[in-house]
Amino acid sequence: MHTSMRHVILAIESSCDETAAAVLINGKIQSNIIAMQTIHQKYGGVVPELASRAHQQHIVPVVSAALEKAKVQKTDLTAIAFTQGPGLLGSLLVGASFAKAMALALNLPLVAVHHMQAHILSHFIDEPYPAFPFLCLTVSGGHTQIVLVKSHLEMEILGQTQDDAVGEAFDKTAKLLGLPYPGGPLIDKYAATGNPRAFSFPIVEMPGLDFSFSGIKTAFLYFLRNQSSQGPDFIQKHLPDICASMQYTLIQILMKKLKQAALQTGIREIAIAGGVSANVGLRNTLHEEGQRLGWNVYIPKFEYCTDNAAMIAVAAYYKALAGQFASQEVTPMPRMEWK
Prior knowledge:
The chain is an alpha/beta fold. The protein is 41% helix and 18% strand. A hairpin with a 5-residue loop joins strand 7 (144-149) and strand 8 (155-160).
């Protein structure tokens, strides 16, 4: 293959509290390095200022490790990609500034990637790939959406949360139960041994394919207050059942709308993406419902569910193939709109 036809892309992800870099050659991931930030645990959530400082510390070693693992020199690169948004402004700035400076120094084109679209395109890291058009439920700490994916670069939101994201509902539940941050995975862990029908929580009905999770968080707060009359150790005694019941309710809300979307569109290619797609309860439910309804279900590997640079690299690859490059004037967009 002629070298001008090769795509060797370095991708950088820094939207929240993971500093990540990946190298892709002609559509295949060669390395995917992630540096986690543990400093936020003692604050019970991500502190934006601390996140951006940690990105500054991690970005050079992470990029070096990604290039080294892929056995790629800086001079081999054909483009540099980065997450433009959505995300925390300070965090996005670190990744964008680094990518722009490196692209300028090496005289390479830039590719600016939408973080949530990259989550969806994580399905094209490993085969089997979903066939177009497919529906993707994108679930994370900041987003809950049902997306109609028409091609690698053409996507349409059919429904989304009108208030909080499902990931935030998981984390808030964990916080109210006194579990350490990040609490979502712990809810999943305790739920595995609990009874999902031990307690019932109200479901807010939203029109169309939209979601709402603020009501269930409030209901959960009142539930804990009401149960405190049973003694201070109520949570401790019933933790698996509480987690299982809350998780069951949240998954039912997601699945109801997803089934509705599949029915409306007649699409049977169904995918999930985003941090909450690592939830074992959700993954199992999707497989079960998929078998029952005759869906082809696609779920990314765990390492590609949470924030990572491999998904940024894959999204950048399809943008590069279409000639969609960014200028040096491109700026990070914390509330980046869907385009």
